[in-house]
Here is the input.
Amino acid sequence: MSSFRIRPRFSHVVDLTLDGTRDRILEALKPASGIEVKDFPGYICLRIAAKDQHFWSPRLALNLQATPEGTTLVEGIYGPNANVWSLYLFSYLIVGSLALFSGIFGFAQLAIHDRPWGLWVFGTMVVLAIALYVSAQLGQKLGAWQTFQLHQAYQTAIGRPTEIS
Here is the structure.
């Protein structure tokens, strides 16, 4: 279950129709299973029950698509809850933007033989980007058991093993 990806994922085809696949997953994951299920057209979200959640608790987003053969393509993505994901997304956006502009500014300062203090800001942003990645990996490790529980619940519901990439 360990992965260097920020959001581990899987994709496979289920030999049932779209409605059959959705019904099978929903029937197997009743509230007694300790997994919360949110059902939307073509989309199912699995989360750990609220009483067992912590900051790093994962969720499994399942995208269900009908294929021309009458089967269902299931694409699953593991990730943190939306608030944690948004925090990381905006942090990467801010750090990346500051790194880009400070790097350009620092090299421009270097080109005109000025003191390149912009490169210090650039270096700091690189360190912050690495720190964000490492903290995301740490959070993934802290939520690994719950990710395993979600994966096991999905595999049990679908009735076959699924490999995460």
